[in-house]
Amino acid sequence: MKLRVDTFTLLLLGAIVLASFLPATGSAADWLTTAGTVAVALLFFFHGAALSREQIIAGATHWRLHILITALTFVFFPLAVLPINALSDIIPTWMPKDLGLGFLYLGVLPSAVSSSIAYTAMAKGNVPAAICSAAASNVFGMMLTPFLLLLLVSTSGAGGFSVAEALKDIVMQLLLPFAVGHAMRPWLGGYLARNEKLMARYDQCVIWLIVYSAFSHSVVSGLWQNLPLQAIVFAIALCFALLGFFMVMARFLVRRFGFSLEDETAVVFCGSKKSLASGLPMAKVLFSGHPGFGMIVLPIMCYNQIQVIVGAILAQKYREKIEQARESSPAHTAEN
Fold first, then answer.
1. CA angle 70, 201, 30 (to 5 degrees)
2. Which positions ≥6 away from 193 have C-beta within 8 Å?
3. CB 84 within 8 A of CB 103
């Protein structure tokens, strides 16, 4: 299978390089911050208008599958990153405080919607279940993520942001625009459905703007002076380890509970992925003005690129297995 580097991945890397050499400062930085705030609010407004209630209701009857995916996303993953954050007290040169906080944040993020569904479809798995679980994960994630982060921060002793201020901003900048957008779905839903590619481009533009603005702020605050090379390599290795661990755990639990191979694809992809599209906008709200913002979002950026590459390979393998299983099934044999 031939892999090609995703264009958007190159654009994100370009944003980091540009911010490293030409960071926005002064009034330009203030303008970018304001533009980012407005862009994020519009992003969640559009998501609210585009999300159909039927998408969530469609797969709700498969409750055992959804409970398993939710547990992986919002219970087991947060628990897995707690020891990683603890490394900031043991080996601070390999795991600075803000990087440890970034792994805590990675752990409480919702599942990635588009890639989870796309890879499940590519693998010929249970697409309706993937749609239901990934969509529900993101809707509930807007409420769960800040509360889970508060719980992990209080448990681990990490800090660096005002929880009360962050929760207020989450409601005003994310939940309120989402609710208003959903209320306007009867008027906007059709247009958004016909222009999915345009909306996807807008999502990517918002993420690029956030990445450039965030890294500009962090570079000016001394990101590369405070983040050793070994910490970057260590963070990438940990992201590989986390993804591999949760894919293996998902497969083990699916087979332990007797789900089908099609269900397994939905659990593996939805239960192991983390959303960059939701994670960066929420991080901008939760950690607004934090000098270590670049370090905090580094784990989700690394994890996202790794899950895209590994997911593409794994989806092809699942597709081959499912096609072979269907060809050897008694019903298929009888038809021939």
1. 95
2. 50
3. yes
Question: Using CA atoms, how far apart are residues 293 and 210, in angstroms rounded to an integer?
Answer: 11
Q: What's the burial of 83, exposed, middle or buried (CB within 10 Å: 0-12/13-18/19+)? A: exposed
Q: What is the pLDDT along the chain (336 residues), one digit of tens a residue?
A: 444 556 777 887 888 889 889 988 888 888 987 888 888 788 778 877 876 666 545 545 667 788 888 899 999 999 999 999 889 889 888 998 889 999 999 999 988 766 677 778 778 887 777 767 776 777 677 677 878 887 777 665 554 445 556 556 667 776 788 789 888 988 988 888 888 788 778 877 887 887 788 778 777 766 677 678 898 899 999 999 999 999 999 999 998 988 888 888 888 988 898 887 778 778 877 787 777 787 888 898 888 878 877 887 788 888 888 888 877 766 544 454
Q: One-letter amino acid identity for 91?
A: I
Tokens of residue 158, six digits: 């990490």
Q: How far is 249 from 72, CA to CA, in rounded Å?
A: 9
The rounded distance, in Å, linking the Cα atoms of 66 and 320 is 25
